[in-house]
Prior knowledge:
Blueprint: H1 3-15, E1 27-28, E2 34-36, E3 41-44, E4 50-54, E5 64-67, E6 73-75, E7 80-83, E8 87-94, E9 99-106, E10 118-121, E11 125-127, E12 133-134, E13 147-150, E14 156-158, E15 164-166, E16 170-178, E17 181-189
Parallel strand pairs: 3-9, 10-17, 11-17
Antiparallel strand pairs: 1-4, 2-3, 4-7, 5-8, 6-7, 8-9, 12-15, 13-16, 14-15, 16-17
Amino acid sequence: MNYKKIIALMSSLCIMGGTLQTLQSRNIINTAYAEEDSSNTLNFTAIGQTIPIKLTNNDNLTVTWKSDNENVATVDQNGNITSTGVGSCNVYAITSSQVLSLTVIVTEESAETPDEPVTVTLDEIHLDHAQNTAVPSFNGADTSAAQWSSSDTNVATVDEKGNITAVGKGNCNITAVLGNTTYIIPVVSDYDPAEDSTPEIQEQYVNSFTLTNEKPTRKITTQAEGLTWSSTDENVATVD
């Protein structure tokens, strides 16, 4: 039945001397998603919610359901009203002898505004040969889910647990992103990897000599200090 027929039926009921009956005694089966009041109004608080409606004391009647604005709410022939858009409309239950009306109002709560990003700069960390590693402090906060990065990996690196290691001289920033908060840790490194390198061993040929049974031992004299002595074949000769 289209909307024009609804109007015609409503007019005929008025001519018969009666006023339109409403769903004042309606039975709302499920009000989990609606706010119910004593008036003939059904309030939805979000789009896409469905509430079943049925007529009380009219179980044997054939009912045709109709919405006058399906952009706000639709209704199927079982009386299930679904909110489709913000606004208001009327839903009609049409029987052979009466037209019952229900006002539907749909509102939608605004989405929560996400928290604004926050940047926090922590205390500067100084690294050198005496201490070339560090772990920044977050006042006990859990940083296991943080994403770590270094602005210059030639100065300092950082692993997935937040362990910072100096690898060269210079300044850089270590960054930890945790949720909507970005932590920046300035790093000053005086660490010089060249100072950790092992000096190149220089070999110097002194002289050759022969050991015999009569003279199996000989002392080598040199003015150099701090020498480390070794033999290429201790099965032939040893040196202390």
